């Protein structure tokens, strides 16, 4: 029997370095899958359908809601975002670990469902540094940066919903910490797996 | 304010490679402290007082029990074994991580006290391998080996008391897994520490 994959749920305020982190994790963990969300918002210039998101119509999205097809979904401003339940389950059933990048609202939904996974929140080293990174992008107005900072503050104040908090000061150290978390979690007592039947029998004799 | 050290509680059935593991961890983690237990049993040929154990008289031990000086203690056959509460606390208060090697009975006591720490159980790859290692030592009779195996089986069947189970197949991999566990645990949401007052304030604003 294949052991089920581990769902790793990540959130990071805008400007914390989520995109770089994702790229580095893809390099370090070639076998890990990244969940692709569905959305009704139009793709940005560099975004690809099926890679960044599945870009679908509002009608198709509402239809998926009706069919209970989403593990979690949310309406943010005028657009819908959601994580497909069947796609996610299929990957995990294959024994593959899966990274889900969600916002805090998505995590609140999963926690309410008692969805089993490892929840990791990425923090900036300081709010000043976050502002610097957001301004440095040069893609947003001062007003937009301020708005993102306020949202970031709200998200950080909800980081108690997660299992781990990781400060992204140095990206390589952050990656190492995440690799350590994954390695540790695979040895958690409730996830422990052994191929040795004798030892499995001893472990399974434990009172539940 | 110094952040308190992390207590790491280890158990490993006899023959699992605990001694080698301890030596490797001392090399990898020069700053970590190893708890030294008190015992009334006589030292073995290669054991040093204050290093392997504090070897004390039965009278002194019973006196320490009366003074509630032990975090946990147990009588095994004719001898007493215990972990000093003040020594342990002093190390942790200094911000140093501390490795406590305990038997399953000791862990049961600490769990009953809801003692906060990271509990790690080391497993052999198989019972056959454990027998091979115990026999290979050449220090014990066949009867003694059998007895140790039975005790080992009992211990493994209680490994659900721990947070992590680590199979010691390859000592270097085991050490890496333990280092990963320590790194991960330091990022656990309830242990998270940041020097940034702004972020600390946001985190502390969270509903408890």
Structure description:
Two copies of one chain form a homodimer. Chain A is of the alpha/beta class and 208 residues long. Chain A has two domains: 1-32 and 108-208, 3-Layer(aba) Sandwich (Rossmann fold); 34-96, Guanylate Kinase phosphate binding domain. The first copy, chain A, is built from eight helices and nine strands. Chain A has helices at residues 18-28, 58-66, 85-93, 104-112, 127-136, 142-156, 171-186, 197-204, and strands at residues 7-11, 33-34, 37-39, 53-55, 70-76, 79-84, 98-101, 118-123, 164-167. In chain A, strands 2-7-1-8-9 form a five-stranded parallel beta sheet, with helices on both faces. In chain A, a hairpin with a 2-residue loop joins strand 5 (70-76) and strand 6. In chain A, helix 1 (18-28) packs across helix 7 (171-186) and helix 5 runs antiparallel to helix 6 (142-156). The longest helix of chain A has 16 residues, at 171-186. The mean pLDDT of chain A is 92.
Give a brief rundown of this model:
Chain A is α/β, with parallel strands linked by helices and 208 residues long.
Report the top-level CATH class of the largest domain in chain A: Alpha Beta
Give the end-to-end Cα distance of chain A, rounded to a whole number of Å.
Answer: 22 Å
**Radius of gyration over C-alpha positions of chain A, nearest whole angstrom:** 19 Å
Strand content of the residues of chain A, in percent? 15-25%
